[in-house]
UniProtKB/TrEMBL annotation:
Pfam families on file: PMD
Keyword terms of this UniProt record: Membrane, Transmembrane, Transmembrane helix
Residue ranges of domain Aminotransferase-like plant mobile in the record: 5-82
PANTHER family linked to this entry: PROTEIN MAIN-LIKE 2, PROTEIN MAINTENANCE OF MERISTEMS-LIKE
Name the record gives this protein: Aminotransferase-like plant mobile domain-containing protein
Residues spanning the membrane: 73-91
GO biological process, one term: meristem maintenance
Keyword Hydrolase included in the entry's annotation: no
Length: 97
C-alpha cells in the first residue's frame, strides 16, 4: 500500500476521532473540516496541546448546557467522569486520614 494512502487513512481516522469523540457537538454526525488544517503534517500532530484544547471545548459546552433553554450537553463527557472520580477519591483520602 502506498505511503500516501496510509497517511490519508490516518488523517481520516484522526478527523473522525477529533470530530466525533473529543470535540463532538450535539449533532453527533457532523465533523468540522477545520480540524484538517491541524492534520496536514502528521509529524506535528503530537506537538499540539490537545488536552488544553479538549478542556476549553468541554468548558464551553458546559457553559452552553447551563443555560435555561438548553436540554442537553455535548463534548467528551468521559473526561468529566474521570476527573470527578479522581477529585472525589482525592478528597475522600484527605477526609479519612
Amino acid at each position: 500500500m502506498p505511503t500516501h494512502s496510509i497517511e490519508c487513512a490516518v488523517r481520516g481516522y484522526l478527523l473522525y476521532l477529533l470530530g466525533c469523540t473529543i470535540f463532538s457537538d450535539k449533532t453527533g454526525t457532523y465533523v468540522s473540516v477545520e480540524y484538517l488544517q491541524y492534520l496536514e503534517d502528521l509529524d506535528k500532530v503530537k506537538e499540539y496541546a490537545w488536552g488544553a484544547a479538549t478542556l476549553v471545548h468541554l468548558y464551553r459546552q458546559l457553559g452552553m448546557a447551563s443555560r435555561a433553554k438548553c436540554k442537553s450537553i455535548s463534548g467528551y463527557l468521559t473526561l468529566i467522569q474521570v476527573l470527578l472520580t479522581y477529585i472525589l477519591n482525592f478528597y475522600n483520602n484527605i477526609i479519612l486520614t
